[in-house]
Amino acid sequence: MPANVKARVLFHSKRLNVYLVRYPEGHKVVPHVDMVSEGRLYKLNCVLAKPRSGGEFICEKNIFNLFGRLYLFRPDLYEHRVSKIERGNRWLLSFALTRS
After folding, report:
1. Which CATH architecture has domain 6-99?
2. Fewer CB within 10 Å, N side or C side of the chain?
3. What are phi and psi of 87, to 5 degrees?
């Protein structure tokens, strides 16, 4: 059985959260839309380390995608997922901004 996802909260406030996340080999993120109680949610994800195989981020619509490393998207509007990580780990620095 693969190891669990490890997430560390680096910063937390009412509008902005910053996380450092490690997705281990064998993990995948199923297609989903993030729910918010109010406002609009924006995520800026920076892939710090890509796995050797698999672990690709797939989103219905990005605001921008810079070299497959930096993504800005609306997770509350568009379905997104990460394919199964076949070899290695995926490290992510994630900024989640909620706007009224």
Report:
1. Sandwich (2.60)
2. N
3. -145, 130
* Euclidean distance between CA atoms 100 and 23, whole angstroms: 30
pTM (predicted TM-score): 0.91
Q: Give the model confidence (pLDDT) of 46-98 as tens digits.
A: 999 999 999 999 999 999 999 999 999 999 999 999 999 999 999 999 999 99
DSSP sequence for 65-80: EETTTEEEE-TTTS-E
Nearest residue to 43 (alpha-carbon basis) of 18, 8, 68, 13 = 18
Spans of all domains in the chain: 6-99
